[in-house]
Amino acid sequence: MLYIEQLKDRYQLIIGYVGTIIIGIGLALLIPLLLLPIYRTEIHEVRYFVVPSLIAIVLGYGMRRVMKYGEEATLTLHEGGVIVLMAWVSAAIFSSMPFILSGKLNFTQAMFEAVSGLTTTGLSVVDVTETSHIFLLWRSLMQFIGGAGLAVIMLSAIIGPHGLGLYHAEGRSDKLLPNVARSTKLIMIIYIGYITSGVILYILAGMPWFDAVNHSISAVSTGGFSTNPDSIGAYESLPIELITIILMFFGTTNFAAHYLLLKGEVKRFFQIGEIRFMFLALAVAIPFTVYFSLLKLYGAAGKGIRVAIFELTSALTTTGYSTVGYGDWDSFAIFIMITIMIIGGGAGSTAGGLKQYRVYIMLKSLVWNIKGYLLPQNVVRQNYVIRPEGKYYVSPNHALEICNFAMLYMITYAAGVLVMLAHGYSLQDSMFEYASTLGTVGLSVGITAPDLPGMVLWAQIAGMMLGRLEFLVVFFAGLKIIKDIRIITKRKPKIS
Q: Where does the sequence pass through the membrane (predicted)?
Protein backbone atom coordinates (compact mmCIF):
# COMPACT_ATOMS: atom_id res chain seq x y z
CA MET A 1 0.00 0.00 0.00
CA LEU A 2 2.83 2.38 0.85
CA TYR A 3 4.39 1.83 -2.59
CA ILE A 4 1.06 2.58 -4.31
CA GLU A 5 0.70 5.83 -2.37
CA GLN A 6 4.26 6.81 -3.29
CA LEU A 7 3.52 5.95 -6.91
CA LYS A 8 0.42 8.14 -6.85
CA ASP A 9 2.47 11.00 -5.41
CA ARG A 10 5.01 10.65 -8.21
CA TYR A 11 2.28 10.75 -10.85
CA GLN A 12 0.86 13.87 -9.24
CA LEU A 13 4.29 15.39 -9.84
CA ILE A 14 4.36 14.10 -13.43
CA ILE A 15 0.84 15.35 -14.20
CA GLY A 16 1.73 18.75 -12.77
CA TYR A 17 4.78 19.12 -14.97
CA VAL A 18 2.85 17.98 -18.04
CA GLY A 19 0.24 20.59 -17.13
CA THR A 20 2.93 23.27 -17.18
CA ILE A 21 3.94 22.22 -20.69
CA ILE A 22 0.32 22.25 -21.87
CA ILE A 23 -0.05 25.80 -20.50
CA GLY A 24 3.05 26.72 -22.47
CA ILE A 25 1.54 25.28 -25.65
CA GLY A 26 -1.64 27.23 -24.97
CA LEU A 27 0.31 30.48 -24.71
CA ALA A 28 2.35 29.63 -27.82
CA LEU A 29 -0.88 29.26 -29.80
CA LEU A 30 -1.50 32.98 -29.28
CA ILE A 31 1.85 34.10 -30.74
CA PRO A 32 0.76 33.93 -34.43
CA LEU A 33 -1.97 36.44 -33.61
CA LEU A 34 0.72 39.10 -33.26
CA LEU A 35 0.63 39.25 -37.08
CA LEU A 36 -2.94 40.58 -37.11
CA PRO A 37 -1.99 44.30 -37.09
CA ILE A 38 -0.05 43.61 -40.31
CA TYR A 39 -2.37 41.08 -41.97
CA ARG A 40 -5.77 42.42 -40.88
CA THR A 41 -7.71 40.42 -43.46
CA GLU A 42 -6.90 37.27 -41.49
CA ILE A 43 -8.83 38.44 -38.39
CA HIS A 44 -11.50 35.78 -39.00
CA GLU A 45 -8.94 33.04 -38.19
CA VAL A 46 -8.40 34.25 -34.62
CA ARG A 47 -10.93 31.79 -33.18
CA TYR A 48 -9.02 28.82 -34.59
CA PHE A 49 -6.14 29.65 -32.24
CA VAL A 50 -7.92 31.26 -29.28
CA VAL A 51 -10.26 28.31 -28.65
CA PRO A 52 -7.54 25.60 -28.39
CA SER A 53 -5.36 28.06 -26.48
CA LEU A 54 -8.01 28.59 -23.79
CA ILE A 55 -8.70 24.86 -23.56
CA ALA A 56 -4.98 24.13 -23.14
CA ILE A 57 -4.46 26.83 -20.51
CA VAL A 58 -7.50 25.76 -18.44
CA LEU A 59 -6.59 22.06 -18.70
CA GLY A 60 -2.95 22.74 -17.90
CA TYR A 61 -3.88 24.86 -14.89
CA GLY A 62 -6.12 22.09 -13.61
CA MET A 63 -3.27 19.60 -13.96
CA ARG A 64 -0.89 21.96 -12.17
CA ARG A 65 -3.30 22.07 -9.23
CA VAL A 66 -2.76 18.33 -8.81
CA MET A 67 0.94 18.81 -8.14
CA LYS A 68 2.15 18.91 -4.56
CA TYR A 69 3.99 22.19 -4.07
CA GLY A 70 6.95 22.82 -1.86
CA GLU A 71 8.64 19.50 -2.59
CA GLU A 72 12.07 19.23 -4.17
CA ALA A 73 11.76 16.00 -6.09
CA THR A 74 14.45 14.73 -8.41
CA LEU A 75 13.04 13.23 -11.60
CA THR A 76 14.33 9.81 -12.57
CA LEU A 77 15.11 9.06 -16.22
CA HIS A 78 11.99 6.89 -16.50
CA GLU A 79 9.80 9.62 -15.00
CA GLY A 80 11.37 12.15 -17.34
CA GLY A 81 10.53 9.81 -20.21
CA VAL A 82 6.88 9.62 -19.12
CA ILE A 83 6.67 13.43 -18.96
CA VAL A 84 8.30 13.80 -22.37
CA LEU A 85 6.00 11.21 -23.99
CA MET A 86 2.83 12.66 -22.45
CA ALA A 87 3.93 16.20 -23.25
CA TRP A 88 4.66 15.47 -26.91
CA VAL A 89 1.36 13.65 -27.45
CA SER A 90 -0.54 16.49 -25.76
CA ALA A 91 1.37 19.12 -27.73
CA ALA A 92 0.62 17.36 -31.01
CA ILE A 93 -3.10 17.24 -30.25
CA PHE A 94 -3.37 20.92 -29.31
CA SER A 95 -1.07 22.00 -32.15
CA SER A 96 -3.29 20.20 -34.65
CA MET A 97 -6.50 21.84 -33.46
CA PRO A 98 -6.20 25.10 -35.49
CA PHE A 99 -5.96 23.03 -38.69
CA ILE A 100 -9.00 20.94 -37.68
CA LEU A 101 -11.18 23.83 -36.49
CA SER A 102 -10.49 25.80 -39.67
CA GLY A 103 -11.43 22.84 -41.85
CA LYS A 104 -8.09 23.00 -43.66
CA LEU A 105 -7.19 19.42 -42.71
CA ASN A 106 -8.95 16.37 -41.32
CA PHE A 107 -7.83 14.83 -38.01
CA THR A 108 -5.21 12.48 -39.49
CA GLN A 109 -3.76 15.17 -41.76
CA ALA A 110 -3.73 17.73 -38.92
CA MET A 111 -1.94 15.31 -36.57
CA PHE A 112 0.56 14.56 -39.33
CA GLU A 113 1.27 18.28 -39.86
CA ALA A 114 1.57 18.94 -36.12
CA VAL A 115 3.86 15.97 -35.48
CA SER A 116 5.94 16.89 -38.54
CA GLY A 117 6.34 20.38 -37.12
CA LEU A 118 7.09 19.44 -33.52
CA THR A 119 9.55 16.71 -34.52
CA THR A 120 11.23 19.18 -36.94
CA THR A 121 10.64 16.82 -39.85
CA GLY A 122 9.15 19.21 -42.38
CA LEU A 123 7.07 16.81 -44.46
CA SER A 124 3.81 18.59 -45.16
CA VAL A 125 0.28 18.03 -46.41
CA VAL A 126 -0.49 21.78 -46.47
CA ASP A 127 -0.71 23.82 -49.66
CA VAL A 128 1.39 26.83 -48.67
CA THR A 129 0.11 28.87 -51.62
CA GLU A 130 -3.39 28.83 -50.11
CA THR A 131 -2.38 29.10 -46.44
CA SER A 132 -2.62 32.31 -44.41
CA HIS A 133 0.36 34.02 -42.79
CA ILE A 134 -0.93 33.11 -39.33
CA PHE A 135 -0.93 29.40 -40.12
CA LEU A 136 2.45 29.58 -41.86
CA LEU A 137 3.98 31.20 -38.78
CA TRP A 138 2.36 28.58 -36.53
CA ARG A 139 4.01 25.82 -38.58
CA SER A 140 7.40 27.44 -38.04
CA LEU A 141 6.75 28.03 -34.34
CA MET A 142 5.98 24.34 -33.90
CA GLN A 143 9.45 23.59 -35.24
CA PHE A 144 10.98 26.17 -32.90
CA ILE A 145 9.23 24.56 -29.91
CA GLY A 146 10.11 21.01 -30.93
CA GLY A 147 13.63 21.80 -32.08
CA ALA A 148 15.04 23.12 -28.83
CA GLY A 149 13.29 20.38 -26.88
CA LEU A 150 9.66 20.80 -25.92
CA ALA A 151 9.95 19.69 -22.32
CA VAL A 152 13.33 21.33 -21.79
CA ILE A 153 12.03 24.71 -22.98
CA MET A 154 8.93 24.68 -20.82
CA LEU A 155 10.44 23.28 -17.65
CA SER A 156 14.03 24.51 -17.48
CA ALA A 157 13.06 27.52 -15.39
CA ILE A 158 11.04 25.62 -12.79
CA ILE A 159 12.79 22.26 -12.36
CA GLY A 160 16.26 23.64 -11.77
CA PRO A 161 18.92 21.07 -10.88
CA HIS A 162 16.26 18.49 -10.03
CA GLY A 163 15.22 17.78 -13.62
CA LEU A 164 18.19 15.73 -14.82
CA GLY A 165 15.96 12.79 -15.75
CA LEU A 166 13.86 15.03 -17.97
CA TYR A 167 16.96 16.59 -19.51
CA HIS A 168 18.31 13.20 -20.58
CA ALA A 169 14.88 11.96 -21.71
CA GLU A 170 14.82 14.86 -24.17
CA GLY A 171 18.04 13.57 -25.76
CA ARG A 172 20.36 16.11 -24.13
CA SER A 173 23.23 13.86 -23.11
CA ASP A 174 25.90 16.58 -22.97
CA LYS A 175 25.38 19.34 -20.45
CA LEU A 176 26.87 22.71 -21.32
CA LEU A 177 27.06 23.72 -17.67
CA PRO A 178 26.90 21.77 -14.39
CA ASN A 179 23.38 23.04 -13.64
CA VAL A 180 20.60 21.68 -15.86
CA ALA A 181 18.50 24.85 -15.73
CA ARG A 182 21.48 27.03 -16.66
CA SER A 183 22.34 24.62 -19.48
CA THR A 184 18.87 24.74 -20.99
CA LYS A 185 18.70 28.53 -20.69
CA LEU A 186 22.04 28.79 -22.48
CA ILE A 187 20.69 26.49 -25.21
CA MET A 188 17.80 28.90 -25.68
CA ILE A 189 20.13 31.90 -25.86
CA ILE A 190 22.25 30.16 -28.52
CA TYR A 191 19.13 29.00 -30.37
CA ILE A 192 17.45 32.42 -30.46
CA GLY A 193 20.75 34.13 -31.27
CA TYR A 194 21.24 32.01 -34.38
CA ILE A 195 17.64 32.53 -35.48
CA THR A 196 17.90 36.30 -35.08
CA SER A 197 21.17 36.38 -37.01
CA GLY A 198 19.60 34.26 -39.73
CA VAL A 199 16.65 36.61 -40.10
CA ILE A 200 18.96 39.61 -40.52
CA LEU A 201 21.18 37.84 -43.05
CA TYR A 202 18.20 36.60 -45.08
CA ILE A 203 16.74 40.12 -45.28
CA LEU A 204 20.11 41.53 -46.35
CA ALA A 205 20.25 38.83 -49.04
CA GLY A 206 16.92 40.02 -50.44
CA MET A 207 14.42 37.67 -48.82
CA PRO A 208 11.08 39.26 -47.69
CA TRP A 209 10.94 39.72 -43.91
CA PHE A 210 8.12 37.24 -43.31
CA ASP A 211 9.88 34.56 -45.34
CA ALA A 212 13.13 35.37 -43.52
CA VAL A 213 11.56 34.80 -40.09
CA ASN A 214 10.01 31.48 -41.09
CA HIS A 215 13.05 30.13 -42.93
CA SER A 216 15.49 31.13 -40.21
CA ILE A 217 13.39 29.41 -37.52
CA SER A 218 13.05 26.27 -39.64
CA ALA A 219 16.71 26.17 -40.70
CA VAL A 220 18.12 26.40 -37.16
CA SER A 221 15.45 23.93 -36.00
CA THR A 222 16.53 21.62 -38.87
CA GLY A 223 12.82 21.54 -39.69
CA GLY A 224 12.47 22.56 -43.31
CA PHE A 225 8.99 24.06 -43.43
CA SER A 226 8.95 26.71 -46.14
CA THR A 227 6.59 29.49 -47.19
CA ASN A 228 7.17 28.52 -50.83
CA PRO A 229 6.20 25.27 -52.57
CA ASP A 230 9.66 25.20 -54.20
CA SER A 231 11.43 25.69 -50.86
CA ILE A 232 14.76 27.56 -51.01
CA GLY A 233 14.95 26.91 -54.75
CA ALA A 234 12.18 29.49 -55.26
CA TYR A 235 14.63 32.34 -54.60
CA GLU A 236 17.33 31.20 -57.06
CA SER A 237 19.88 33.00 -54.91
CA LEU A 238 23.38 31.75 -54.08
CA PRO A 239 23.69 34.04 -50.99
CA ILE A 240 20.40 32.69 -49.60
CA GLU A 241 21.57 29.12 -50.18
CA LEU A 242 24.89 29.82 -48.40
CA ILE A 243 23.10 31.40 -45.43
CA THR A 244 20.78 28.39 -45.24
CA ILE A 245 23.72 25.97 -45.33
CA ILE A 246 25.39 27.80 -42.42
CA LEU A 247 22.18 27.80 -40.37
CA MET A 248 21.63 24.10 -41.10
CA PHE A 249 25.14 23.32 -39.85
CA PHE A 250 24.50 25.32 -36.68
CA GLY A 251 21.21 23.50 -36.12
CA THR A 252 22.69 20.01 -36.48
CA THR A 253 25.71 20.65 -34.25
CA ASN A 254 25.74 19.48 -30.64
CA PHE A 255 24.82 22.42 -28.39
CA ALA A 256 27.74 21.56 -26.11
CA ALA A 257 30.04 22.04 -29.13
CA HIS A 258 28.49 25.48 -29.71
CA TYR A 259 29.52 26.37 -26.17
CA LEU A 260 33.16 25.73 -27.11
CA LEU A 261 32.82 28.16 -30.03
CA LEU A 262 31.30 30.80 -27.75
CA LYS A 263 34.30 30.43 -25.45
CA GLY A 264 36.63 30.87 -28.43
CA GLU A 265 37.94 27.29 -28.29
CA VAL A 266 37.83 26.78 -32.05
CA LYS A 267 40.63 24.21 -32.07
CA ARG A 268 38.81 22.01 -29.54
CA PHE A 269 35.63 22.36 -31.59
CA PHE A 270 37.24 20.88 -34.69
CA GLN A 271 38.86 18.11 -32.63
CA ILE A 272 35.46 16.66 -31.74
CA GLY A 273 35.12 13.28 -33.44
CA GLU A 274 31.50 13.80 -34.42
CA ILE A 275 32.30 17.14 -36.12
CA ARG A 276 35.15 15.59 -38.08
CA PHE A 277 32.95 12.70 -39.14
CA MET A 278 30.26 15.10 -40.40
CA PHE A 279 32.66 16.95 -42.67
CA LEU A 280 34.29 13.69 -43.79
CA ALA A 281 30.90 12.22 -44.75
CA LEU A 282 30.09 15.27 -46.87
CA ALA A 283 33.61 15.37 -48.33
CA VAL A 284 33.11 11.80 -49.59
CA ALA A 285 29.43 11.98 -50.58
CA ILE A 286 29.46 15.28 -52.49
CA PRO A 287 32.17 14.53 -55.11
CA PHE A 288 30.86 10.99 -55.67
CA THR A 289 27.32 12.28 -56.23
CA VAL A 290 28.54 15.03 -58.56
CA TYR A 291 30.79 12.77 -60.63
CA PHE A 292 28.51 9.76 -61.03
CA SER A 293 25.11 11.48 -61.20
CA LEU A 294 24.75 15.25 -61.22
CA LEU A 295 27.45 16.10 -63.74
CA LYS A 296 25.61 14.33 -66.55
CA LEU A 297 22.23 15.57 -65.27
CA TYR A 298 23.03 19.29 -65.07
CA GLY A 299 25.84 19.43 -67.63
CA ALA A 300 27.90 22.13 -65.94
CA ALA A 301 30.17 21.12 -63.06
CA GLY A 302 29.39 24.32 -61.16
CA LYS A 303 25.67 23.63 -61.13
CA GLY A 304 26.20 20.01 -60.08
CA ILE A 305 28.53 20.95 -57.22
CA ARG A 306 26.19 23.71 -56.01
CA VAL A 307 23.18 21.38 -55.98
CA ALA A 308 25.11 18.52 -54.33
CA ILE A 309 26.48 20.69 -51.53
CA PHE A 310 23.06 22.09 -50.66
CA GLU A 311 21.00 18.89 -51.00
CA LEU A 312 23.43 16.59 -49.20
CA THR A 313 23.95 19.14 -46.41
CA SER A 314 20.19 19.43 -46.05
CA ALA A 315 19.87 15.63 -45.91
CA LEU A 316 22.72 15.05 -43.42
CA THR A 317 21.58 17.85 -41.12
CA THR A 318 18.02 16.46 -41.43
CA THR A 319 16.71 19.92 -42.31
CA GLY A 320 14.80 19.09 -45.48
CA TYR A 321 15.20 22.27 -47.51
CA SER A 322 15.76 21.77 -51.22
CA THR A 323 16.62 23.76 -54.33
CA VAL A 324 15.68 21.10 -56.91
CA GLY A 325 13.31 18.17 -57.31
CA TYR A 326 14.49 14.55 -57.30
CA GLY A 327 12.29 13.18 -60.07
CA ASP A 328 15.20 13.15 -62.55
CA TRP A 329 17.90 11.95 -60.14
CA ASP A 330 19.31 8.49 -60.87
CA SER A 331 19.42 5.58 -58.43
CA PHE A 332 23.01 6.23 -57.37
CA ALA A 333 22.28 9.77 -56.19
CA ILE A 334 19.08 8.63 -54.47
CA PHE A 335 21.01 5.87 -52.67
CA ILE A 336 23.56 8.39 -51.39
CA MET A 337 20.73 10.62 -50.16
CA ILE A 338 19.05 7.70 -48.37
CA THR A 339 22.32 6.73 -46.68
CA ILE A 340 22.99 10.30 -45.58
CA MET A 341 19.45 10.69 -44.19
CA ILE A 342 19.77 7.47 -42.18
CA ILE A 343 23.04 8.71 -40.64
CA GLY A 344 21.37 11.97 -39.63
CA GLY A 345 22.63 14.92 -37.60
CA GLY A 346 24.58 15.53 -34.44
CA ALA A 347 23.75 14.18 -31.00
CA GLY A 348 22.38 16.75 -28.57
CA SER A 349 21.14 18.95 -31.42
CA THR A 350 17.80 19.65 -33.11
CA ALA A 351 18.48 16.97 -35.76
CA GLY A 352 17.21 13.41 -36.13
CA GLY A 353 18.48 10.18 -37.68
CA LEU A 354 20.73 7.49 -36.23
CA LYS A 355 22.98 10.41 -35.23
CA GLN A 356 26.52 10.99 -36.44
CA TYR A 357 27.95 10.16 -33.02
CA ARG A 358 26.52 6.64 -33.05
CA VAL A 359 27.69 5.92 -36.60
CA TYR A 360 31.12 7.34 -35.71
CA ILE A 361 31.38 5.06 -32.65
CA MET A 362 30.33 1.99 -34.68
CA LEU A 363 32.97 2.72 -37.33
CA LYS A 364 35.63 3.36 -34.68
CA SER A 365 34.66 0.11 -32.94
CA LEU A 366 35.16 -1.75 -36.20
CA VAL A 367 38.64 -0.24 -36.55
CA TRP A 368 39.47 -0.97 -32.92
CA ASN A 369 38.41 -4.62 -33.31
CA ILE A 370 40.55 -5.04 -36.44
CA LYS A 371 43.54 -3.51 -34.64
CA GLY A 372 42.86 -5.81 -31.69
CA TYR A 373 43.38 -8.88 -33.86
CA LEU A 374 46.71 -7.53 -35.09
CA LEU A 375 48.15 -6.46 -31.72
CA PRO A 376 49.75 -8.82 -29.16
CA GLN A 377 47.27 -10.28 -26.68
CA ASN A 378 48.95 -8.73 -23.64
CA VAL A 379 48.60 -5.17 -24.95
CA VAL A 380 46.19 -3.04 -22.90
CA ARG A 381 44.27 -0.50 -25.00
CA GLN A 382 42.07 2.39 -23.90
CA ASN A 383 39.82 3.33 -26.78
CA TYR A 384 38.45 6.84 -26.67
CA VAL A 385 36.81 9.51 -28.80
CA ILE A 386 36.81 13.28 -28.45
CA ARG A 387 33.50 14.74 -27.31
CA PRO A 388 32.72 18.38 -26.43
CA GLU A 389 33.61 17.79 -22.78
CA GLY A 390 36.95 16.15 -23.71
CA LYS A 391 38.19 12.57 -24.01
CA TYR A 392 35.53 9.92 -23.57
CA TYR A 393 36.69 6.34 -23.07
CA VAL A 394 34.31 4.02 -24.88
CA SER A 395 33.37 0.94 -22.86
CA PRO A 396 32.19 -2.28 -24.55
CA ASN A 397 28.75 -1.73 -22.97
CA HIS A 398 28.49 1.75 -24.51
CA ALA A 399 29.35 0.40 -27.95
CA LEU A 400 26.87 -2.46 -27.48
CA GLU A 401 24.07 -0.04 -26.53
CA ILE A 402 24.75 1.96 -29.68
CA CYS A 403 24.66 -1.17 -31.85
CA ASN A 404 21.39 -2.25 -30.22
CA PHE A 405 19.89 1.16 -30.95
CA ALA A 406 21.07 0.99 -34.56
CA MET A 407 19.48 -2.43 -34.98
CA LEU A 408 16.19 -1.20 -33.51
CA TYR A 409 16.33 1.84 -35.80
CA MET A 410 16.84 -0.27 -38.92
CA ILE A 411 14.08 -2.73 -37.96
CA THR A 412 11.68 0.19 -37.57
CA TYR A 413 12.88 1.61 -40.88
CA ALA A 414 12.25 -1.71 -42.61
CA ALA A 415 8.75 -1.90 -41.12
CA GLY A 416 7.93 1.59 -42.39
CA VAL A 417 9.21 0.77 -45.86
CA LEU A 418 7.05 -2.37 -45.90
CA VAL A 419 3.94 -0.32 -45.08
CA MET A 420 4.63 1.93 -48.07
CA LEU A 421 5.38 -1.03 -50.34
CA ALA A 422 2.08 -2.61 -49.31
CA HIS A 423 0.31 0.49 -50.61
CA GLY A 424 1.86 0.16 -54.06
CA TYR A 425 4.82 2.55 -53.93
CA SER A 426 8.12 1.52 -55.52
CA LEU A 427 11.00 0.22 -53.39
CA GLN A 428 13.21 3.23 -54.17
CA ASP A 429 10.51 5.78 -53.39
CA SER A 430 9.47 3.92 -50.23
CA MET A 431 13.05 3.74 -48.95
CA PHE A 432 13.63 7.43 -49.63
CA GLU A 433 10.37 8.64 -48.10
CA TYR A 434 10.63 6.59 -44.90
CA ALA A 435 14.33 7.37 -44.44
CA SER A 436 13.24 11.01 -44.56
CA THR A 437 10.37 10.32 -42.14
CA LEU A 438 12.26 8.32 -39.52
CA GLY A 439 15.29 10.62 -39.75
CA THR A 440 12.97 13.66 -39.34
CA VAL A 441 14.47 15.08 -42.54
CA GLY A 442 11.47 16.25 -44.55
CA LEU A 443 12.74 15.74 -48.10
CA SER A 444 10.26 14.01 -50.40
CA VAL A 445 10.11 12.41 -53.82
CA GLY A 446 6.48 13.48 -54.05
CA ILE A 447 4.76 10.70 -52.12
CA THR A 448 3.76 12.72 -49.06
CA ALA A 449 0.61 14.63 -50.01
CA PRO A 450 -2.93 15.27 -48.68
CA ASP A 451 -4.29 12.26 -50.60
CA LEU A 452 -1.82 9.84 -48.98
CA PRO A 453 -3.62 6.78 -47.47
CA GLY A 454 -4.40 7.17 -43.78
CA MET A 455 -2.41 4.07 -42.78
CA VAL A 456 0.71 5.47 -44.46
CA LEU A 457 0.23 8.84 -42.75
CA TRP A 458 -0.04 7.16 -39.34
CA ALA A 459 3.03 5.02 -40.09
CA GLN A 460 4.87 8.25 -40.83
CA ILE A 461 3.51 9.88 -37.66
CA ALA A 462 4.84 6.96 -35.61
CA GLY A 463 8.18 7.13 -37.43
CA MET A 464 8.57 10.86 -36.83
CA MET A 465 7.80 10.54 -33.12
CA LEU A 466 10.19 7.62 -32.67
CA GLY A 467 12.88 9.36 -34.68
CA ARG A 468 12.68 12.55 -32.62
CA LEU A 469 12.15 11.17 -29.12
CA GLU A 470 14.58 8.25 -29.29
CA PHE A 471 13.16 4.73 -29.35
CA LEU A 472 14.11 3.60 -25.86
CA VAL A 473 12.53 6.67 -24.23
CA VAL A 474 9.21 6.00 -25.97
CA PHE A 475 9.22 2.24 -25.32
CA PHE A 476 10.29 2.40 -21.67
CA ALA A 477 7.96 5.31 -20.91
CA GLY A 478 5.04 3.44 -22.49
CA LEU A 479 5.85 0.26 -20.56
CA LYS A 480 6.21 2.20 -17.30
CA ILE A 481 2.81 3.87 -17.75
CA ILE A 482 1.11 0.52 -18.46
CA LYS A 483 2.83 -1.20 -15.52
CA ASP A 484 2.06 1.62 -13.08
CA ILE A 485 -1.59 1.80 -14.13
CA ARG A 486 -1.94 -1.92 -13.43
CA ILE A 487 -0.38 -1.49 -10.00
CA ILE A 488 -2.52 1.52 -9.04
CA THR A 489 -5.79 0.03 -10.31
CA LYS A 490 -5.17 -3.42 -8.85
CA ARG A 491 -7.85 -4.23 -6.30
CA LYS A 492 -6.96 -5.36 -2.84
CA PRO A 493 -7.90 -8.98 -2.15
CA LYS A 494 -10.95 -9.35 0.06
CA ILE A 495 -10.37 -10.82 3.52
CA SER A 496 -12.81 -13.66 4.10
A: 12-34, 46-63, 75-101, 144-167, 188-210, 242-262, 274-294, 332-354, 405-425, 457-482
